[in-house]
Design goal:
Layout (H helix, E strand, L loop, with lengths): L16 H22 L7 H22 L8 H25 L5 H9 L2 H12 L5 H24 L8 H24 L9 H24 L8 H29 L1 H4 L1 H17 L6 H21 L6
Helix pairs in contact: 1-4, 1-9, 1-11, 2-3, 2-8, 2-9, 3-7, 3-8, 4-7, 4-11, 5-7, 6-12
């Protein structure tokens, strides 16, 4: 995410209501969206579900910009950034997430996306010169080992005689592609191109470009749209569009500005906890000893890596 490398906030900023309330709210909302997505990919194709989500979210984000009295005009280079953000964040990332949830439980997909810190660090070093500390590398290795155990548990749960663990392998590949697409969007936002535009305005244009890409992709792959008649489907879509996108993205980016990228990223750990909890309650996720050990390693590694990311670079 676009943010200063260091936090200028007080050591206990997370305890302040102005920070703590949106921090927890974003985590609870994003933690819930992983499960809501599972209701969007049954009778309707994943591609059209993503398109409907952002077809609703995009005008709402422009309305939010107008309500906040923000200019809708942006410099040309900011539009270029918005196009890439739309392609990677609001098209590629979400398309791969929806497809991944056809094969893996929502909590496992959320945990895989939580590994986004790794490509963020690598791309940040290559493109922005941000350092990778030994503690971050160690934490990432521990988290990857934990997730490997979780995926092994998923593979073992596949019934004997099924196509080995093909669904698990495919779901993992799709989730990793989603993670990489989001990571690319995060890193390019850290460049200078977006500084001439208000945050909500930049998000609105990014969603517009992403929506156009989603509509074209859905039509190309799945043909003309079939409008769902299920009210529950549209309630879920509205939740994902308005609450899960329009409400949360501005709140989260404001947290990034106030806390810095490293400390704000703790939100992602809380999102995973919420998502795994919901998956346990509503999807019947089974916590075997292997799964518990993998989740413990993954969370410990992510916390270690995130703690390292908040360390300022050497001068």
């Amino acid at each position: 995410m676009s943010a200063p490398l260091q936090s200028a906030s007080a050591p206990h900023a997370l305890l302040r209501p102005a920070i703590a309330i949106p921090f927890v709210l974003v985590a609870l909302i994003w933690g819930s969206t992983w499960f809501v997505i599972t209701g969007q990919i049954g009778d309707v194709s994943a591609h059209w579900s993503v398109a409907w989500r952002f077809a609703i979210a995009t005008p709402a984000m422009f309305v939010l910009a107008l309500v906040m009295r923000l200019p809708l005009a942006m410099p040309r280079r900011a539009h270029g950034l918005a196009m890439w953000m739309g392609l990677f964040q609001f098209c590629g990332n979400y398309t791969f997430v929806y497809l991944a949830e056809l094969h893996l439980t929502s909590g496992i997909v959320a945990l895989l996306i939580g590994l986004m810190l790794v490509p963020n660090a690598v791309l940040g070093k290559i493109m922005l010169g941000q350092p990778i500390t030994p503690r971050f590398a160690a934490g990432s290795a521990v988290a990857i080992a934990g997730i490997a155990l979780l995926l092994l548990n998923e593979a073992q749960a596949v019934p004997t005689g099924a196509r080995i663990s093909g669904n698990v392998v495919l779901g993992t590949a799709l989730a990793l592609m989603a993670m990489l697409a989001a990571s690319i969007a995060n890193v390019i936002q850290a460049g200078p191109s977006g500084k001439g535009a208000a945050l909500v305005t930049l998000l609105a244009w990014s969603m517009l470009y992403g929506t156009l890409a989603n509509l074209g992709l859905a039509w190309l792959i799945d043909g003309p749209p079939v409008i769902p008649r299920d009210g529950a489907y549209w309630l879920g879509t509205a939740w994902l569009a308005i609450v899960g996108s329009v409400v949360t993205f501005p709140l989260y980016y404001d947290l990034v500005r106030k806390l810095g990228a490293g400390r704000a990223a703790y939100n992602g750990v809380l999102v995973v906890v919420v998502a795994m909890g919901i998956s346990t309650l509503l999807e019947g996720y089974r916590w075997t000893p292997l799964a518990m050990g993998g989740a413990g390693l993954a969370m410990a590694g992510l916390l270690l890596a995130l703690r390292a990311r908040s360390v300022p670079p050497a001068q």
